[in-house]
Amino acid sequence: MAKTVPLVFIFAVCSSFFFSKFEDVQRPLNLSAATYLSGICWILIRSSVCVGLNFNPPNQNLKSCEGKIMHEVVLLAHKVWGGRHLTREETESFLKEVRTARFCSHNNDETIHAAPVWFKYENGKIVILTPKRSCKARNVKRNKNVSILIDVEKPPRGLLIYGKAELDNEFDLKSTAIWLCEKYMSKEKAKDQWRIATSPATDWLKITVKPERMASFDYG
Hints:
By secondary structure, the protein is an alpha+beta fold. The chain has two domains: about 5-80, no CATH class; about 90-220, Pnp Oxidase, Chain A (Roll), CATH 2.30.110.10. Helix content is about 45%, strand content about 25%. It has a seven-stranded antiparallel beta sheet with strand order 2-1-5-6-7-4-3. Helix 1 (about 5-20) packs antiparallel against helix 2 (about 35-55) and helix 2 (about 35-55) runs antiparallel to helix 3 (about 60-80). It is globular.
């Protein structure tokens, strides 16, 4: 910690000189140089304190601090770009209105598999259907940790969801498929279209994700 704190102050002094000489430097929105710099320095000071606790991972204190630091970064980003978080009511409404999600799971080679999916949100859980032999199903069987990105461009807003996925092969495909399709079409049309959306020649699984953490943004 003794080594890291001086670095923070050196950075602060150099940055102060930079901003004093180049006050017209481009910064997001119209934040003053002092405001912009103080936010950066605050994050660095927090980082220095955390690193000073114990630099040898895996250390619970360090992991906890890393999470807090990232939280500070997110808060600063919201201030810099004028964003805000979605309220609980807005989150619930957003999950029920947006049509497509990006379902992200872990491949065997440690890369990320991301796929657009239809989904439905109900009772605090996200449900999708997928073929039993799909990459999503294979990945979830091996690693239940998944992420789901749900966002729209106009206005720019979205949710990043972290949770654990559960596979279910003992469910009624017809009723579940109709229930899910009702989000995208009328109930009558869903009754006719569910067989097209879920080929009977394919074995299907239901994936249910219970969110453990959610990060939201709204730059509208």
